[in-house]
Amino acid sequence: MTDFGMELPRLRGPVPGRASKALAGRLRAVESRNVTFLGEAFPVFWEEARGANVRDADDNVFLDFTGAFGVALAGHRNPLVTARVAAQTEQLVHGMGDVHPPAGKVELLERLAHLSPWNRTRTLLCGSGSEAVEAALKTGALASGRSGVLSFRGGYHGLTAGALAVTHRAHFRAPFRDSLFSGVSFASFPTDDASAARALEEVAGFIDVGAPGGHPIGTVIVEPIQGRAGVLVPPRRFLSELARLVRDAGCVLVMDEVFTGFGRTGDLFAGPADDAVPDVLCVGKALGGGLPIGACMARAEVMDAWPKASGEALHTSTFLGHPLSAAAALGFLDELEEGDLLRRVRTRGDSLMRGLVDALAGADGVREVRGRGLMLAVELAAPDGLPLAGGGAAVAERALAKGLIVLPAGDVGHVVELTPPAMLTDAQAEWGIATLTACVLEEIQSA
Questions:
Q1: pTM of the entire structure?
Q2: Distance between CA atoms of 107 and 80, rounded to whole angstroms?
Q3: Which of 16, 164, 344, 347 has most Cβ atoms within 10 angstroms of its Cβ?
Q4: Is 417 helix (H, G, I), strand (E, B) or coil?
Q5: DSSP symbols for 105-157
């Protein structure tokens, strides 16, 4: 029998099953109704995961093509991660990150500095990607001396107050618009050479005139590949030209690599791989190997815009440098550096892309298959040529019923997003592509 983690799906009955439905009823009674979508065909409740497999409360085994929001790049319950965490639990499970720090924090910061794109690096650790963005925005304001920010349409940087201000989608912003920082402008995010030239002209114009409210722009924040917008990939020279433009204007360039960083695209960082070295990097997701962690990394000269600590840190949190999260991150970095993770991502990503392109070639309702590494997307179109609103979510429901976990993306849910673990077996990859293709074609035909 194949080991759990390397299995093909095994379903014991309808999905979701009786246990998941019972848990959904219990959850409905106690959780904010805005958090978890509860429908007839969604969700299943996870109880165990390993490698690329998830087992739910009904003992169904699924194949995970989401990597749990991109976190499980090195596989669920990666052995190097769990070994580090298990050892740490026997020593220290909490410390005082900015007062009496855990010793492991130093090792993690040193490892991050070694992997950074700068000669001298300083890092601010935190608990999530959105927290890393908050720290980056503050760093940009301090280093530039200017309060305005330039972000990009379609960009997603998190839902905490500062991060939400630079997140574009109206669905997230609208209820809180009046309480968000108003000094943010949004430029177009390009997907081809022609739109890249226009976007760079927009960026230059925004920097010249400033952000709303009279805020001069000092920080530019960008995802090298827009994830939640539907895996939108800019042309190769856009990021390097953007970095040059921002640098010449004396602004701070922040690259949000929470999703793309540490190997998801087949490179250590997606921006520097496109010859675009930022001033600040935001990372998270895969770095924690399954435990919550984020980091705002920066050139030392930029991070040193923060004043020296005097006993009251200006930006900190209770769980900064948390020992278990730091141990998990060190385990993930062990896998990254010792386990040939980047080669796995490139090889598997290339094969998945070829499989999707070949299987969906000529399908009228498929506008594009795109991505890089293990960050892939299938964009769906309605018969009238417009985005197939809700099509990605419908495909996700169809796939779940067959044992495959995928997620929708795009501003109207018209994209199917794939961010699987790098540890997929050949059999899992082939089954996943065949199943996803069937679900996509079924949804297109029913549209």
A1: 0.97
A2: 16
A3: 16
A4: strand
A5: HHHHHHHHHHHSSSSSEEEEEESSHHHHHHHHHHHHHHHHS--EEEEETT---
